[in-house]
Amino acid sequence: MSWLNLNQSLNSLKGQITNFATEVLSEGVSEESGDNAIGSDERYKELEERCRQQELEIQELRKKEEFLVQQNDVSIFNLLFTYWVENYEGTIRRQFT
């Protein structure tokens, strides 16, 4: 019977240690999660600002792309016009003179 009492005492002690460890660990986690929440909020704001800056950069790049496409179209037109003048203008003049 003394073994039974000793076994119950050990189980009780084991339960108390388990409860204490659980409490200590959960307090540490809640404190850390509070710090992480602040860190997460700052990180969120940082990422939000970074996204905003990238959106502005994308808008600027789209404007530059549009400008370059227009310049390219003008250049192609000028090349075609120059080619036409060099190759066909004399032919057309001879036909009408």
From TrEMBL:
Indicate the segments annotated as coiled coil, or none if absent.
Answer: 37-71
For this UniProt record, the keywords arranged alphabetically read as follows: Coiled coil
Q: Would you tell me the protein name for this molecule?
A: (diamondback moth) hypothetical protein
